[in-house]
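Weekly modeling sync, notes
Attendees: S.R. (lead), two postdocs, one rotation student

Agenda item 3: backlog of single-chain predictions. S.R. asked that every request posted to the team notebook include the full sequence so nobody has to chase files. The rotation student volunteered to paste the first one in as an example of the format we agreed on. Action items at the bottom.

Example entry:
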Amino acid sequence: MEWSRVINHPLLQNLPFKIEQNKFGQLLMSPATNRHGMLQVAVAVALSKKKKNGRVINGCSIQTSDGVKVADVCWASDAFIAEHGDTTPYARAPELCVEIISPSNSRAAINFKIELYLARGAQKVWTVDERGNLKIFTHTGAIKSSRLAPRFKINFK
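Predicted structure, as returned to the notebook:
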């Protein structure tokens, strides 16, 4: 099934799940908790306060080598938006992709998504756990901090 059909299919509207697609066109669904949603908004708000020359995107769909993945939050520069607009899904990942880690996510699945986003052009991938702890990944692996995230803290309890 093509992604455009997935997002327009009436039976797939308003599901309490995050929907993604693997490279075989199969749909993958992850249950979303309210805490996950609250963290997603907290990250988006914090990013929008820190980064002015670009846009924050919640639920950003990205075509990867393993199908369409949906990053919880992304930050895309003005240059990225000028080039890609609101194309769905993006053929290239925005500069920053963020995954909120839910209890249902395996470490292997999160590591795989980090690799997919970086392979599609993301400069950094952040993961945020259920307590708001931030980890930053680049093409060289995990790093302690970055220019994009100086002393970045998700104020969430």
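Discussion: group reviewed the output briefly. The mean pLDDT is 86.
Action items: rotation student to repeat for the remaining queue; S.R. to check formatting next week.
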